Amino acid sequence: MRLAEGTPGARILAFGGYQPTRVVTNDELAQTVETTDEWIRSRVGIASRRIAGPDETVTDMAVAAGGKALAASGLGPSDIDLVIVATCTPEAPIPNVAASVATRLGIVAPGAFDLNAACAGFCYALGTAADAVRAGTSRHVLVIGAEKLSQWVDWTDRSTCIIFADGAGAAVVGPVPEGEGPGIGPVVWGSDGAMADKIYIKDRDSFIVQEGQAVFRWATTALHPVAKKACERAGVDPSELAAFVPHQANLRIIEAIARKIGAPQALVATDIIHSGNTSSASIPLALSAMIERGEVGSGSAVLLLGFGAGISYAAQVITVP
Amino acid sequence: MAMTDQEILEGLGEIVDEVAGVPADQVTPDKSFVDDLDIDSLSMVEIAVAAQDKFGVEIPDDELKNLKTVQDVVNYVHKAEVSA
Fold first, then answer.
1. The domain at A188-319 falls in which architecture?
2. What tens digit of pLDDT does each residue of A225-239 get?
């Protein structure tokens, strides 16, 4: 037996994001549930969110984001040999989303699978893609986080319907050119099934349930060490980070973690304000928007941190393409 | 050695100031966190976490709903300290 010929490192070649066109404001929600714009802004930091149309699927959104990332990478469909879709809201258990996305993008016969690590999904998928490239089992990987959380939300439950939203974000991962350093640092990932009852959907007829205080306590106390460890393993000091892009769960969680990682100079992603919580899509959506606006330059180091149901979490440092 | 109620109150005042920006001198025993100090359920979690660091007393989420006033927290910390 022999192994595939690997490469010294992987990098991200391009990002892409897609959001549904429909904007739902806090005032609109206040017409159907007892809440106010001020209450929502102060508790979760959201001003508006994007919600998919009734016929718009997770696959549709994944295709839109994946297509943008692929176009921006300069590669063609035939260059991609693996498609990973991180999602916890697929239309059905089978078929998976990834194979359909690949076919619709003209990617013929790639490895294709869905990955569920809830809101940590994108970082898990990115870590898996980087390892596949490094091991030589894949050359170029299309990594997508795509969610339609609106279909799993009880729109009469004011504690959850104000938070969750829809969207997709994608990245193309490939090998690092000879002589250059890696562009994706080692992933630091973990989970704790003892907290499985803190965020869950009981069955196919149920909606998302979240124990807000328990999740808040965990997120604001347990995750900054994970983020710091990802920096340490990548050999990047927090003071060298251009940006910190955590999962867009709640603005107060984002700010609490950001204060604790020791990177006051880093721009902190706050895409949640106008996008809501889009689970596995939130990190690539936020980062692709920051890159589009020119807020983080090519070659700069950015810390990603995903966390959510499971509970599960993952972090890594990446270099902006 | 266990802290006096006054020491706990002062420590709690510092925490509330830090977490919610409420001046420590306003954190008096009869104040309600929600009604008087405008502190919401998430800030209460932050106060509980900070109290654990400061007093070494764990305040679980289940207990938070019972701690309505500043005096309630002082009593809880005092009791937990004595029984520790």
1. 3-Layer(aba) Sandwich (3.40)
2. 999 999 999 999 999
With bands split at pLDDT 50, 70 and 90, how would you rate the model's confidence at B84?
Answer: low
Q: What pLDDT score does B81 carry? A: 79
Of B24, B16, B75, B71, nearest to B48 (Cα)? B16
Provide the ipTM: 0.87
Question: pLDDT tens, A284-297?
Answer: 999 999 999 999 99
CATH of the domain at B65: 1.10.1200.10
B45 touches chain A (CB under 8 A): yes
Written in H, E and C, the secondary structure of B14-50 is HHHHHHHCCCHHHCCCCCECCCCCCCCHHHHHHHHHH
Which of residues 190 through 229 in chain A touch B, CB cutoff 8 A? 211-214, 216-217, 220-221
CATH superfamily, domain at A10-175: Thiolase/Chalcone synthase (3.40.47.10)
**Of A26, A123, A140, A247, which residue is the catalytic one?**
A247
Residues 6+ apart with CB under 8 A from A232: none
Contact B41 A212 (CB under 8 A): yes
Nearest-CA distance B45 → chain A (Å): 6
